[in-house]
Write a structure and sequence with these properties.
Distance between the termini: 54 Å
Structural class: alpha/beta
CATH superfamily of the largest domain: P-loop containing nucleotide triphosphate hydrolases
CATH class of the largest domain: Alpha Beta
Strand order of the largest sheet: 4-3-7-6-5
Number of strands: 18
Strand content: 15-25%
Length: about 525
């Protein structure tokens, strides 16, 4: 590309009507995060770092073409639906007939929020006999936050309407990812039409594409998206990284992902748990020893630092190292060399160091248990892995992944989880984090007598915790004054959380929102 770079080419392609819809992938040697972000801001859909593998390029091209085709199909269906609906404003039966014909789930609510129509092709598989005449928020199988997003969208003017992203799991445990557009019913503006577009295939393709960057990490919650952002910023550097997080959150998984996304991915990845070895054995394992260095050393031994040459060494539970071992490790980081036990000549090592701990090392430093100079050496870059209680919306994805791994056990096939069991998992506080969730699924598979996991086969501590919560009733709060005043008092008491405010007033969310709208109380207050 003489006299022009890839960014300019991308910009020109995206500004030309004939080429603006073509997906663009950068193949580049520029691996800095700023460069990647710049490419995405200009409209690129992906990037591949050099040196390239032809198979990867072809696979990514095929995936992005498929995603592009699926998105075009969804846009065409949406346009056809809205055009047909506009033409049939005066004909009630023709409009409903058109909605039933399209491969898009539709639902219509009246002015009070009650469901008056569900299309035959609705991906939500709602029982029409039970759902008709019910409040939509009592029927749709989404979580509280997603229902609040839908409620907010219903109250916005037409020009401000945007699609709402939703997730849903059916009775067999299959997960769906949806986009929902909400429009006023052309026959009656106070009624609303919900258009549900199944984007599961698009989501799954994108998940497959992201595996190259994030390894086997699972989750699309806000907490995980923030972690992915930090992950991308530090993955391809040579900095020493500290991975912070509670026990069981998956720190080693993050470490292996950082290695796989780094320029050292072709080298070895070696993980060492510093808490599992005593001091003398750990020194031998880390730095190696020569023959006869100590009793029982019958041969030369290569340590982990040398074995990880050209790759990554992950030191888990680094807070368990003794002060003398901390001193030895500090020298390695400063000089990039080790001395085998029994030798005097140093050996150069070329390895990237990743560390992890569940301890609060600043406190260990104050108590004289950890060296401050080593602390600042190993925490050049840092990444925090969120605990499971901060990303509970990821639990269905994690459960699906664990079921796929362990669905066959002791000759039984267990590949589903009931909605009731899933609700129990999402209500639990998970002190053991993702590791505890994985063990809970294994426990359920062992004890399940059928293909679907029911609540009664979950570990007893989960069921006991849920039962205790259900017996603990929140204190009753009385509000005084007229209705406008009570609405404002409830919002203030709930710190602006509208769902909680509605619960305090003992009314449904839909009724609460209608009251806010009737009294012109801003949702931002």
């Amino acid at each position: 590309m003489p006299k022009i770079d890839g960014f300019k080419v991308c910009q020109q392609l995206k500004s030309d009507p004939e080429t603006q819809d073509i997906p663009i992938i950068f193949i580049t040697g520029l691996t800095e995060t700023q460069e990647q972000v710049k490419g995405f801001e200009l409209g690129a859909v992906d990037y591949i770092a050099k040196p390239i593998q032809c198979e990867e390029v072809l696979a990514r091209v095929a995936s992005h073409i498929k995603i592009h085709q699926l998105q075009q199909q969804l846009q065409e269906r949406n346009h056809q639906l809205e055009v047909q609906a506009a033409k049939l404003v005066k004909n009630h039966h023709d409009l409903l007939s058109i909605l039933n014909q399209f491969q898009v789930g539709t639902l219509i609510t009246n002015a009070d929020g009650h469901i008056i129509f569900i299309s035959e092709s609705c991906v939500l598989s709602l029982n029409q006999n039970n759902a008709i005449s019910q409040q939509w928020e009592d029927v749709l199988p989404f979580d509280t936050n997603e229902k609040e997003q839908l409620q907010k969208m219903m109250m916005k003017p037409v020009a401000s309407l945007t699609p709402v992203s939703l997730t849903w799991q059916n009775q067999t445990g299959q997960h769906y990812w949806l986009k929902c557009n909400i429009r006023d019913d052309p026959r009656e503006p106070k009624q609303h039409i919900f258009y549900f577009y199944d984007q599961s295939e698009i989501y799954q393709l994108r998940q497959q594409l992201s595996q190259t960057h994030y390894g086997q990490m699972v989750g699309n919650s806000e907490a995980m998206l923030q972690m992915y952002d930090t992950f991308e910023q530090i993955a391809q550097g040579e900095w020493t990284v500290m991975i912070e997080g509670e026990t069981g959150v998956g720190k080693e998984l993050v470490a292996s992902g950082l290695h796989a996304a780094s320029t050292r991915q072709s080298g070895p990845f070696i993980a060492v748990n510093c808490g599992n070895l005593n001091e003398s054995l750990l020194a031998s394992e880390l730095f190696g020893h020569c023959k006869w260095a100590f009793t029982g050393a019958n041969t030369d031994h290569t340590g982990f630092f040398e074995a990880a040459a050209g790759g990554t060494l992950f030191l888990d539970e680094i807070g368990e190292l003794s002060l003398s071992m901390q001193t030895s490790l500090l020298r390695v980081l400063q000089e990039n060399e080790i001395i085998r036990l029994g030798e005097t000549k140093p050996r150069k090592v070329n390895v990237r160091i990743l560390t992890a701990t569940h301890k609060y090392l600043e406190k260990e430093i104050r108590e004289g248990q950890f060296r401050a100079d080593l602390f600042y050496r190993i925490r050049v870059a840092r990444i925090r892995v969120p605990p499971l209680r901060e990303r509970q919306e990821d639990i269905p994805l994690l459960v699906a992944a664990f079921l796929a791994e362990e669905r066959v056990s002791a000759g039984k096939v267990v590949n589903q989880i009931s909605m009731e069991a899933m609700q129990c998992l999402q209500a639990y506080h998970w002190p053991g984090n993702v590791r505890e969730l994985k063990h809970a699924i294994t426990h359920a598979i062992i004890h399940s007598r059928q293909a679907i996991i029911l609540p009664d086969v979950l570990p007893p501590e989960i069921l006991e915790s849920i039962n205790h919560k259900s017996k603990t009733k929140p204190p009753t709060i009385e509000f005084e004054g007229d209705e406008r005043t009570r609405l404002r008092q409830a919002l203030e008491k709930a710190n602006g959380n509208r769902t909680r405010a509605a619960q305090l007033l003992k009314m449904s969310r839909a009724t609460f929102y209608r009251r806010l709208k009737a009294y012109n109380i801003s949702l931002n207050k």
